## 1
Amino acid sequence: MARYAMALDYKNCINCKACETACKEENGVLLGAQNHRIWVGTKEIEGEFPLLNISSSNFLPSQCQQCSNAPCQEVCPTNATYYDEHGVVRVDSDKCILCSYCMTACPYDARYVDDRTNTVDKCNFCSDTRIARGEITTACQATCPTKVRIFGDLDDPNSEISEVLRTREHFSLKSYLGTDPKLFYLT
Amino acid sequence: MNFKSIIPIKEVSIKELFSFKMSFSNVTMAMITLGLVALFTAGAITYFIEGHHAYNVTREHPWGLIIGMYVFFVVSSTGLCIMSSIGHVFGVKEFEIIGKRAILGAILTICTGFLVIALEIGHPVRMVIYNILTPGFTSAIWWMGTLYGLYLCFIIFEFIFLIRNDHKWSKIFGLGGLLVGIAAHSNLGAVFGFLIARPIANGVFFPIYFILSAMITGSYLLFLMYGFRYKMNFPKEVEDMLVKLAKILGLLLAILMFFEIWRMLTSIYGGVPGRAEIAKHILMSPNFLVGEVLLGMLIPFIIILVSKGKNIKGLVWASILGMVGIFFMRYDLVHDTQLMPLQLLKIREYQLPPSLVEYFPSFAEIAISIGGIGVCLLVYYFAEKFFNLDYDK
Ligand code: SF4
Ligand code: SF4
Ligand code: SF4
């Protein structure tokens, strides 16, 4: 079984938001400011004009971190949140009771309420769409013009992501919480 | 064997059911109750029409006032259960008289709590099904819900045996209810304490604090119930009991204040991000200073201290303030936990960089929460007609 993960060469991000759009299109995410599985955060330029520190500004694409030790899974009373066979953290919308516990428990604000099912939803690495069709891509990764996103199987030593994590420095968000995310930011 | 031989209820005609002495306090109470029930109905209707959109909860602040109110009701229930057990489980004589009334109160408040939360979670029926089919044993909500279900069964049996004057079995079920209730209630505290994402809530504080503040809530409620029952003209044994209760309450309040001081100190000391700034924010907020500290703790505490617990009438009035304070304790607990934004950078062009998360309850949330009190009062009124809640020697 694969163990899917994503590496983000985030310094290449140009904040074009193509990934956000592709995600909404691929997964049928409803429009609206609260409904988003993935997002791109903006760090403002530091300093006062004209003494601006241009290099301080950057963009940080983010989404569910696919924690290997996921707080959202631990707190779910009905096991609606579960790890699938590829290690992806998914929500079974038939079991979710919308208690919102996972939303308060996720340290990354990665979950939202889907109005179609009135249950919690989040990024699942396109498991319902592309992965289910047998492809090994995600919509955001396929669409990114500057190749910020590298998606693949950690257990396959020859995969691009394994290669890049071997050769480049990287960090993950809020790693001190012990959530062990499977999203890696390349420095 | 008919129903009445199992549970002794009084014969009440429809006319008797709706008639009561037209005193000022009774009429005021009736008006408040009906007003609140109307409010609750309006809130519930809004929710059924608009669904979850009737609430102001957002992805950043998913738990709102209704969750706080649920906690408020179940804290009341556990508190009444613990306080009543002093008498008929542990055998402290003066407290035996509160048994029936307190346990009935515990049953009604927890049922109201369940009613309120059923209007908040998205799929309550599904919850019952999957709690059993695919239990999440690592989830504090699962344990809290399951144990509270069990607790409700225990206290219902306890109540039945109490009104049958069967003190052996009421004691057994009382002990069971007490133990399960404490387990359930500390698990409710753990629902917040387990949130590693929220440093202000994370830790062992809440499970213990919940038990302590439950006992305080139970004491306030007993003052209110007895104050209203006897219209401030207390028989000797009730007065003795209330003076004792006041002394216990004073001690509990002192411990609570001690707890709070150390919670604030540990939260602020060292400046841990996401914890220290929230603690400082709490210390500055009127909800905390006026609601929790002044109304919830200081005023009742000072009355007890000054009168050495003898000013029962004053304490009945102070208990109203105390309950308002307890309400703020619950609301703040839920709200403050979520104040710190979790996303690291601003995520949309038109959004300001992360500041504290904002939330104010919507009409539907306020109506359902506050109105819930009316539902509880209404059922209590009927229950008083059907059962003999006073102590018979
Ligand atoms: S990022 Fe949040 S939603 Fe995603 S697996 Fe981790 S805890 Fe769960
Ligand atoms: S909202 Fe749904 S997925 Fe989240 S903890 Fe509750 S039941 Fe589980
Ligand atoms: S598509 Fe790529 S470059 Fe564009 S916003 Fe997304 S991650 Fe950044």
## 2
Amino acid sequence: MSDAERPTDDSGDEFEPIEVFPEAGETDLRPGADDCYKCSTCDTECPVAEVDDEFPGPKFQGPEQWRLKRQDDHDIDESVMKCSNCMRCDSACPSDVPLSQMHNTARAEYVEENVSKFSREYWRNRMLANYRRLAPLGAMFPRTANFVTGLSATRWLGEKLLGIAGERELPEFATETFREWWTKRGGARVENSDKRIAYFHGCYSNYNTPEVAKALVRVYEHFGYEIMVPEQDCSGTPMFANGMLEDARRAAETNVRELAAAIDDGADVVASCSSCSMSLRQEYPELFDFEDTEAVAENTWDAVEYLRVHEDLETELEGTAVGEEFDDFAYHAPCHARNQGLDGQTVELLGLIDGVEAHDVGDSCSGISGTYGWKAENYETSMAIGAEMFDHMDDADATAGLTECPTCSMQMEHGTGYEITHTLEVLAAALVGDGADATGANATGARAE
Amino acid sequence: MAIEDDVLVVGGGLAGATAALAAVERDVRVRLVSHKQSTLRHASGLIDVLGYTPAGEGPLSDPFPALADLPEGHPYERVGAEAVRDALAFFDGIAGDAYAGAHTDANALVPTHGGTVKPTARYPAATAAGLASDDRDALLVGFGTLPDFEAPLAAAHLEGAGVPFAARGVTVRFPGIERDDAKVTRYAHLLDRDERVETAAGESTARTALAETVRPHLEGESRVGFPAVLGDDRADAVRADLADRLGVDVFEVPMGPPSLPGLRLEDLLFDALSDAGVRVTTGVPVVDYETGAHGAGSSGPARIDRVTVDRNGSEVPHSADQYVLATGGLVGKGVESDRERVSEPVFDCHVPHPADRYDWFVDDVFGDQPYARFGLPVDRDLRPLDADDALEFANLRAAGAVLGGHDFAAEKSGSGVSLATGYVAGRRAAEGCR
């Protein structure tokens, strides 16, 4: 049911609702619980329940647990921490029950009430959730950081001290962050008051894969856009998943303020990471009520989707080619892209470019789900969920991977050893790379309709 | 810029997938947009054509002669019996070895988890060894942690229904599952992956452990029925493996929701969509539409020019030449009701219903419920009609449970109606492309 159809109470007669619940002022999740008719479709979509009997599934974690909580003597069940926040249950539910919102709320309450602030878990989770705070340290001395985090001794310590899965390799820091590069370059090279975007690059493409962010810049400038790179904090995704709603709230406050200011300057917001766009579009309005939260959500887009709607991207891609740098890909659509209706987009677009093909590896979850698969206690579950994707990647007619989500790409690489690329890098190569016709720049500034 | 296609199908269930597959055969560009997971997950996975007449006569041994007698406005009457046959043949081509029953017009009788017998036209290969017309004795095996299938009770019901074989039921523990609330996908996954499990006799693999659990209960039966949780992606291999180890035929008994045979059918359809080059967009609703120029003169029906797809707040325009509405019925939310009226939420097509809410139902729960037939009236081209019997739109067709005039639950006609009308709507949409 769309917002447009939500009944509004505009009847003129005096209607005094009866206060049934004490928590007026908080988000009312009761309609969510009431709309659930127990069809269990969400349970069939849950990747964790499929590999772990100990996880009671999204139907319990959301509506049923909410009801249990009406009884004062019930705490949130600790199993809520086994939910990976993939949000597949949201797009499963035929009744629009806001499952992930209920899970996020329950998880925050569990961490608040039941997790000791002195426990190893709490600080480990806080550290993982606040990667954005630690990354600058690594980015200051990237080579040292990469050397130290790559040491087996470091990984052993990480597991023993903090409970971070020793099997995983910490992502490498780039020797120059995207923002450093952007500043050095002198910022935007195209000025255009009619076509502006504000780039929400997120943490990963700033500190770890600036090549993705640079590809976005090249593609958008090719289409004649003026790019703004506003001040920004983490999108909050890893914080929701760890029940750290206060940390997320602080980050969201900064993001909403800065992005709303860019929107006032005539920009639309685009993100290259599917979890970032998901967070700004769906989780912010569900969990926060800062001024302009809705405006930011409504004006945020996936970076590729935006060009599809606002430019004639398909015509532009027809007849382009990429050279030797890319071969065929095994493509995995992240859960958070799937939930935004972006599941078919990459395969459709790459089909237009000569010399490269994307083979979809199916609709399974990669299993890493951001920080989830980094925790020693979840590593096995994470790999069990990922097994189907690894199998399909092996079967696909390709030896390289493609996805839009940073942690999915880590999992893909971890499970197959393939090198993983972001879709924007392929589009940049086709539109403005060696294989592209460099005269095709659409710098007219006219907005295609 | 709208995202452009020739045919846009709204809805991702059996009717929508069939419409998209039928359209793409004609070499046009087809997109399927679906919002939530379809009601295939509630469905048995059986393909019924007609089990009972609207008057309640049945079970019908052959559905086809009865099609000619259906009342005006019934979806089958709209498309004609020939289209039903064509659609079944089309389905057979898509399903290949995954489904059986194409060798005859007659209905097959499939035992259900409640111990009833359901007449159906096509059934999954997993169910083939379990037909009620087969006179071989059967052992039904249920699991203590899966109370939806009470095997001894189902066996007693079957015998009470007069099946031509002896049925016996036992309840065992499913090796590798301790908890009462494990999901059906967990059972399937254990067997798919043949995971290591702990048994009383030590560690073993899931399939071996299950076969060893059942073996002592066999008393000469040549077939064994399990609840339909025997694998998902590798269901055929799981079944063959169990049959091999036990030396008997193994079959699945269709279950209530959530249903693995329904999930497997969904996977089969979506694989076919992908192979055929249908563009698929899931997880987002169509929330609005715009009409363009009218058809013949200004008096003709309006043409849908574009629809708006809501992507987490962003409005993405999609345009096509022809549209198919396959959003489901009351359960699939393609037909909605509030205290005032019954409506179709995407294009606001006319849904005939009594003005007084108390006339929408009768007190007898299993009686002839008016609401069960609520849905869109259509012409013989499956184009929705307004209150004056005029076309709602020139380029919209409707298929599946969104159509009125039939009570699929009582008639056992749900899958057949989705297939036949999906097939016709998809083909006509493609033919109508300019």
